[in-house]
Amino acid sequence: MEYRDWAPIYDRIRTEFGFPFEREVASADELEARAAGRLTVPPLDPLRRLLFGRTVVVCGLAPGAGAPPLWRLPAEAPAPVLIAADGATERCLAASLVPSVVVTDLDGPVAAEVSANRRGSWLVLHAHGDNRPAIEEWADQFPGRLVGSWAGPPRPRLLNVGGFTDGDRAVLLAEHLGATRILLWGFDFARVDEPDPRQRDRKLAKLAWARRIIAEVAGRPQARVEIWRPDGRRVAYAEGAAESTTR
């Protein structure tokens, strides 16, 4: 998605959740300052070489999902690319899967993301208004290949191809860079592991946006989007997403 198409959507999100744009700018500035010499420039080119024309598996953090059983997929060349959305990185590493790409805003188990980055994962680090303290703590601790992103207009060192949560941001990245098929593993838009009722409601509201954003991707011709179920079946996004919000 181009920024000009994403900006009005994010304006609605920012209004709904009360995100001040000046905080977004401050976090982006912090990321650039902390990782100035290490951010890949231009940010999209190496990821495009990795994802273009490929099947991409995006691994989410749905309760009980575990890591994706990549061995169940039909053999194809080139092999599918694995993208882990934030906390799903830990699940992948526990199953001896090193993601090709990790998309994170640093609100999960960051030590696992540092480990994956050290072992070869591209890390797409997102700056937004609520994660400046995490950027201050972690941005200079990633030893491997690093790409920056943020919530405003693209900068030379920071991309923005759309996306709100780590999961839908990974999907939009894959679509933008030419993936032909996107398989969603560990996506559930109706359940979260959060005991606090207020935080749970806020997370579910974010997931509702993620569901809508991915639905837009699924409705476009660039990439086929499917939900990969634990039983091994792969279903069209519209069918699978509807089930995950009504169970």
Characterize the structure shown.
This protein is α/β, with parallel strands linked by helices. It has one domain: sialyltransferase cstii, chain A. The chain has helices at 3-17, 21-34, 45-51, 88-94, 110-118, 132-138, 166-176, 197-218, 237-244; strands spanning 55-59, 81-85, 101-104, 122-127, 146-150, 158-159, 181-185, 224-228, 234-236. Strands 6-5-4-3-2-1-7-8-9 form a nine-stranded mixed sheet, sandwiched between helices. Strand 8 (224-228) and strand 9 (234-236) form a beta hairpin. Helix 7 (166-176) packs parallel to helix 8. It starts with a helix and ends with a helix. The model has no long low-confidence stretch (mean pLDDT 93).
In terms of topology, how is this protein built?
Blueprint lengths: L2 H15 L3 H14 L10 H7 L3 E5 L21 E5 L2 H7 L6 E4 L5 H9 L3 E6 L4 H7 L7 E5 L7 E2 L6 H11 L4 E5 L11 H22 L5 E5 L5 E3 H8 L3
Parallel strand pairs: 1-2, 1-7, 2-3, 3-4, 4-5, 5-6, 7-8
Antiparallel strand pairs: 8-9
Helix pairs in contact: 7-8
Observed structural traits:
247 residues; alpha/beta; sialyltransferase cstii, chain A; 40% helix; globular
**CATH architecture tag:** Alpha-Beta Complex
Q: DSSP strand (E) fraction?
A: 15-25%
How helix-rich are the residues, as a percent range?
A: 40-55%
Chain-averaged pLDDT: 93
Q: Can you identify the CATH class? A: Alpha Beta
Q: What's the number of domains?
A: 1
Q: Secondary-structure element order, as H and E?
A: HHHEEHEHEHEEHEHEEH
- Sketch the major β-sheet: 9 strands, mixed
